[in-house]
Each structure stands twice: as C-alpha cells, then as structure tokens.
Amino acid sequence: MSEIELLQQQTANLENYVGLISEHIIIMHFSLDAEITHVTDAYTKSFGFPTSDLIGQSIDKQLYSPSHPEAPVWSILEKHGLFEGELELPNSSGESYWLLTKIIQEIDTAGKHVGYIAVSQDITSKKLFEEQQRQLLSQSRHALMGEMISMIAHQWRQPLSTMSAISANLMLDLKLGSLKEASIEDELLKFEQIISHLSQTITDFNDFFKSDKVKQSSDLSQIIYEAIKLIDFRLKNVNVITELDILEPIDIYPNELLQVLINIINNAIDALATSKVENPTLTISLKQKDDNQPIYLSVTNNGDPIDEKVLPRIFEPYFSTKDKNGTGLGLYIVKTIVDKHLDGNIIAKNLNDGCSFIITLGESYARQ
User: Fold this and answer.
1) In sequence order, what E strands does 267-328 have?
2) H or E, element range at 181
3) How far apart are the first and last CA of the chain?
4) Residue 152 near residue 205 (C-beta atoms within 8 A)
5) What is the spatial distance between Cα 126 and Cα 166, in angstroms, rounded to a whole number?
6) CA distances from 59 to 34, 49, 64, 156 (A)
7) What pLDDT digit, counting tens, does each position of 82-140 carry?
8) Distance of CA 89 to the CA centre of its chain
9) Closest by Cα among 266, 284, 258 to 338
10) How many CB atoms lie within 10 A of CB 61?
C-alpha cells in the first residue's frame, strides 16, 4: 500500500470514528458567551431538535443542576472551569430528559480558552426507574402505615378497657361512700402503669416509621424481638420459636430490617391462617458459622408450601397470591430493601412442611 493510499485509509478510519462519536455520544460545544457552536447527531436523536435549530442559540445561564443546587451551572463553570452532574432538560415534545453531564473548558491550539465542551450520557431510563422505585416504596409505606394504625388500635384496646373498668369501680365506690385512700392510690398506680404502656406503644411504632439516615450499630436479635413484639397480637395462636446465635452488633439500618421482618412474619401468619396445620409454628433463626462468614436470618412457617408455579414470581411488584386482599408490594419491597439497603439477598424456598424466607447478609457484615 502506497503512502497516499495509507493516508486515505487513515482518513477514512478517522471519519468513521468521528461519525460513530457523532451518532452515539451526546456532545455540545458552546462559546464563552454561551452560544451553541456545535452539537453531535446523538443530541438531535435524543432530544428531537434539528441541529440547524440549535446552532447559534444560547444556553440557559440560569439552569440549575439537582446535583449542585447552590448555584446555576454557568456560575459554576465561570468559577471553576468545570462542571459534573445531572441535568434535567426538555426534549422537543416538552418531556423531561435526564443527562449525566461533564463540561470542561475548550482550549484552542494557541492555548486560549475559547469556550466549553459538554459530554453527556442519557440517564432518563435510570431516573424513571428510580422514580418508580420511590413511588412503590411510598405506596408500601402507606399500606404498612394503615396496618400499623390497626396494630396500635389493637394494642390499646385492652389497656383502655382496663382503665375504663378501674374508673367505673372508683365511681361506684365513691357513690357508695366506700372509697378509701389506699384504694385510690392502688388504682392510680395501675392508671400510671397503663398510661406508661400506652406511651411506650406509641414510641415503639413512632421509632419504626423514622427514616434511617445513617447506619447504626444494632443487635440483630433485639430487632427480631422488636418485630415480634410489634405484631404479637397476630401471634396469639401461633407457636413462635426463636433460634438465635449470639452475635456482635453490626452496622445496619435497623428500621429497614424491622420493616422487612414485619412483612415476612405477616406473610407467614397469613399462610398459617389459611392452612389446616394443627400446630401452626413460626421459627425465626439467626445463624453465623464463623466471624468472617455471612449471617443467615430465616423466617420459616409450617403452613402450606408456595405453589411452585408462582414461587419464582413472588418478589415481583404487584404480584400477589392473596387475591383482592393483597397489594403485591410487600415482598417486592422486602427484596428491594434487602438488596439495596441492607447489602444482602433474600430467597424463598419450599420445605416438606411449609416454606422459608432466608436473608443472607454478606461480607460487609462479617466480623473481622
């Protein structure tokens, strides 16, 4: 191949390379006056604006990035000469489009700063997925809040009935003239104990709904007992067995794990309620073979096994085996929290009698 032919081949390769960049990578050049001087075809392809409509237009100097709400993007560029973050922009149809963008200074051959180059990645699908996740979590939270209100009402019903009975007895003694100071003191002490119990109930449920901002050193056994305590009224006819290894506290989001356990235990109770097993039993196990091994937390019930046909789908959103009584969000949220918030994984498997949900907390929780 001659030198000319080699040069022609290299030129053709370069043109192909530039063409691929233009077609697939979103790039925009703009001047120091914020005037757009060049955009790649990928920008037009994504946003629907013809290149001819963009060249010569000015970018919005008041555009803010959610990643840097302290100042407009242009101000950040003028101050630092560099910007990196997310941008939300409208396409030709007025719909939101999300870009992960890095903007750097454009320097000419003489070393002079002549403008800026923005290179962007389309993250619209990622943002839509994240929004869907937030909505599903919110729906699950509201559904669970309704359940919690019912739980609080149930926890309060008996203590309030007791207070009512004490009050009626005091009123009767007063009318009969048989009210004694010692009796008043005893009954007031009972009132104080009951009120303390009601207050503690509110505290327990209020703590549950707090959003965990940072991980906390937590005793996993204590979280398990807290979950059982919060829904103990549903466990009156269930034999609860706990097989818990004594483990050192680990850094975790305790309320997230609490929500997971309550969802799984509630599901197990529902399964036991619809089965014909004579001795409904719920077994909660916490095991770790060695300090540097994963932690296994399982919730097992001896009710009916899950239909093998639907077992692979139980963690899908809006999939429920409870007909009209299920939202199909409980186990989906459980898996989302375990995967993304607790750095673990969860599986469900059928046993000879019943089924088991097994949470594995991996290397990040192993004790060194």
Assistant:
1) 281-287, 295-301
2) helix 181-209
3) 63
4) yes
5) 59
6) 6, 14, 12, 61
7) 999 998 888 777 888 888 899 989 998 888 999 998 888 888 888 888 888 777 767 76
8) 26
9) 258
10) 13
